[in-house]
Fold these 2 entries.
Entry 1:
Amino acid sequence: MTTVFGKIIRGELPCDKVFENDRIIAFKDIHPVAPVHLLIVPKKEIVNLQAVKTEDFPLITECLQVVQQLAEEFDIAEGYRLVTNSGSEGGQEVFHLHFHLIGGRRLRHLG
Ligand code: 5GP
């Protein structure tokens, strides 16, 4: 695993962890754009959403279940935004699949 998230998954870099099991880790974004800004990261090294294979879909589903759980825990279940940036053109900087869970303030309409 070569990315900064690989290092976090291996415990080589600290993070503000909010969830972990054998397959998924979630932690606070180091540069939050809202009062709640969490990153949900499958431990399997998948580059981005476009690289997800059919066999990975149960893992993606589990990520979404973690999103629901964290939305409840962080008291944003009434409204939040879930984002994944796929590829440089999509604004991706860390090339290890992750989902941004953003909330805690009123989010502007996209576009
Ligand atoms: P991307 O642009 O790839 O979708 O998002 C990467 C996110 O990872 C950014 O929001 C950035 O702030 C966050 N990030 C980058 N490095 C670290 C780090 O070392 N620790 C944490 N917690 N977040 C990071």
Note: The helical segments are 4-9, 57-73.
Entry 2:
Amino acid sequence: MKKIAILTRDCGGVNAAIRAVVRTAVASGLQVEGVMRGYEGLIRGDFVPLDRRSVSNIIGLGGTILKTARSEDFMGEEGQKTALANIRARSIEGLVVIGGNGSLAGARVLASEYGFPVVGIPATIDNDVPGVENAIGADTAVNVALDAVDKIRDTATSLERIFVVEVMGRKCGWLAMQVALAGGCEEVLLPEKDVPLEALCAEIKEGSARGKASWIIVVAEGRSTASAVASAVTAATGLETRIAVLGHIQRGGRPTAFDRILAARLGHAAVEALVDGRTGGCVHLQNGRVEFLPFGAAGDKKKPDIESDYHLLKVLS
Ligand code: F6P
């Protein structure tokens, strides 16, 4: 193998992973090209050469230096064949794909339907990749959201108010659960757990009668919206509410030390796997060791163990 390419989505730690892939590849005598704008760039033939210096000083930067985009065209056979022709025309013999379930599904197609050597690195704030404990970017997103929740707590306590904070995560409640636990929040509403709003409102009324004045309720975007929950709480309790929708700030920001180190380990391991011919899967960390996980079936879903964390949250709140 003489030349590999890297394709990415964006979240905290992706640049650190690009750096690790490039520097490991160069140290192994490989040339590296970056694919601009994800699968769109693969179809358009938009590549940039990367060397040791092109990844200097990016370890602490959020986002991705390669930019990214969603690609409808790559879903179809024509787009996939054009992408592959572009890869082959540039004598690229292996691909590292850094991203979440959508990006890894594309990687699985290239590997299983076209036999192209691909290694994935899970990177998503949703932390919803099946079989993977920690995706790059998830820890950074928890810390970004936690910083916001801590600030909301200051004003919620001072004004004795109820806040509903909406957290990202697509259809998965992992991010919301972590933020609620770390922020000492009173309630979390998740797609994986049915906490009826009537029960929540009854709890707030009861607490209010005892003199409890401020609440922070975290809602995962996959369950409901902050405004729907806040309206329901006000209607049922007569108490004033405020909302905060954290949105895309959770996908940005300087990566935490945890994500940078994870990125270093997985970027390094991805290149080693390509060189050793272990392809068609992801590298990830399990019990502190790098493991290789073959790409799963399309539509596989991660089932986070919400119950024990939810129980903990309720005991401590
Ligand atoms: O998958 C990452 C994520 O940030 C989700 O948490 C969110 O639902 C989605 O992407 C937002 O997508 P977009 O950036 O296209 O609005």
Note: The pocket of 6-O-phosphono-beta-D-fructofuranose is lined by residues 100, 124-126, 168-170, 221, 251 (CB under 6 Å).
